[in-house]
Amino acid sequence: MCGISGIVHSENIGRNLFNSIRNLEYRGYDSCGMAMLSEGELDLRKNIGGIDEVNALEQLDKMQGSIGIAHTRWATHGSVTQENAHPHLSYKREFVIVHNGIISNYQELRERLMSQGVVFESLTDTEVFVNLLEESYAEHSDLEKSFLAALQQIEGSYSIVMLSAHDPEHLYCVKKESPLLLGLGEGCNYVGSDLNAFLEYTRQAIVLDDGEYVVLGRDDYQIRKVETGEIVKKSILHIDWDVETSKKGGYSHYMLKEIFDEPQTVRQALKIPTEQISGLAEMFREASRAYLMGVGTTFYVANISQYFFSTLADRYYPALSSDEFSVVTVESGDLVLALSQSGETYDTKTALQYAKTSGAKTAAVVNVMGSAISMMVDQVIMQGSGPEICVVSTKAALAQTFIMLRVALELGRMRDYLTQDVYQKHQQDLELFPEMVQQILNEQSGFVRNIARSTSHVEHWLFLGCGVYYPVAMESALKMKEVTYQHAEGMPAGFLKHGTLSMVEPALHSLFFVPLKEQKVLHDRTLIAMEQVKTRGGTVIGIMFQGDERALAVCDQAVQLPQMSALCAPLAQMIMAQMFAYYAALDLGRNIDKPRNLAKSVTVG
Ligand code: BG6
């Protein structure tokens, strides 16, 4: 997702345009740029890096003009380079655009234009459209007609804002599947990919719908349907969000927003091409030994992945914390897989460097495009979860877990460990999971919040699970510690009786991750541990599945999830525990998005 902004005024708006993309930086910060018209001259400046870095290089905030467009990029197609940054200029320099979305038929259009002698500067789909505009204008010499003619040729999802010296008074905007809104000011109008683009200047907004385009002037606007040209009347909304809140889409914290992003995050993980997933699975298959690696949350994702590989592909790959990785010897023929949201974590980078110098193959699952780790491995899977702003990882960790589940499934199929039927059944389970995530977020958040509020005073927790629910418990305990500052210890439920049980008393709360009843061995082992705690007067909280009367009878309080596939059940419990930690921290008044002492990515040793 990217940030788009445009302003049309009667006075110089360079500073305001710069501020507008600064307010959009959370949408992406690989690169950014601005284009403005001043006395008929087009000034375009763009570079890679965050807003402040690019401003130091390009002096964006010093640009002059009364009409301009701006963009901050979260790369999905085309690496992070200055050429690929937006805005994009047409080959005769008469049109400039910013774009959010994916023009799915850009390759064939690009080939046709190149065969006609058009020279491209970038590899992006966006540049294809701006050159189509140039081509259309040569034919129609009317800006609106050219805009519409070019739109007829493209497919996919896009919100586009265009600026041209042929009409220095108007911006041409179109919306299809990617968000685009208008902001109506006094003698000044705005367009943006979300409210943050202009909320500090006006609270009067119009939300555009798919297939609508706008010719936007400083004190006039015309909204029409792309297909028919008919004028569209839209209601004007008064937005009463404060600027800070609106960056979080109305959620009170990024953490909650990013948890509620999870249905979409899983959909994105499902869209990763199968050839990428099987490419990584093939690397595992060819490796004589393989290791899974990460730190903090990603270490626990590696642990959860360990269980996926052993149950779905009959392969055991040790999970190691990056900071401890040097403890193993690595040699050529081995594979080391790193998990990292930021792609910049020092410990993980160092461990990968050690693996490479030892001759091992390396791979990674990463969220931030152009990050060091994504560039240093033999194969990278970009998870495409969008910017994760909250320091504690939720949606990125879930996506990584889901991706590793896909890889383990692929490996199981490749090794004929899974029959085709079982493999197909599991693939269907994965396809259904985004809807299941949406359902449990909608249905369960109230129950989770009640339990969290009634127990937020608890200072000592045990988080317990069996089998794959054990690393889920570990990751959830970390989440609890990170965001509430209360102590939580994750461990295998079966381990409890060997020592830790001595701690059990009413004040000590135990949160159990209870498997589906159909997971009989894991379920029975978990129930035994729950009853051990209960009989010794400990307080038992359960995250379980509906219809589990035996588990419910042991719990003081319980979250009861709908029945679902055993494959995805642990991921659903992980989400509930993220939400539990969030509401406990909320009740405690913690600095949820920036917990004390922590950093989003520890890039030092
Ligand atoms: C820690 C973060 O600093 O780094 C954790 O607070 C994160 O949330 C860990 O899991 C690893 O970061 P990354 O970017 O390598 O996944």
Identify the strand order in the major beta sheet.
Answer: 3-2-4-1-10-9-11-14
CATH topology of the largest domain: Glutamine Phosphoribosylpyrophosphate, subunit 1, domain 1
Task: Output the structural class.
Answer: alpha/beta
Task: Assign the CATH architecture of the largest domain.
Answer: 4-Layer Sandwich
Percent of residues in helical segments?
Answer: 25-40%
Task: List segments where confidence is low: pLDDT < 50 over at least 5 consecutive residues.
Answer: none
Silhouette: globular
Bound molecules: 6-O-phosphono-beta-D-glucopyranose
Please give the number of β-strands.
24
Main sheet record: 8 strands, antiparallel
Nearest-angstrom radius of gyration? 26 Å
Spell out the CATH superfamily of the largest domain: Aminohydrolase, N-terminal nucleophile (Ntn) domain
Output mean pLDDT: 94
Give the helix tally. 18
What is the strand content? 15-25%
**First-residue to last-residue Cα separation:** 31 Å
CATH class of the largest domain: Alpha Beta
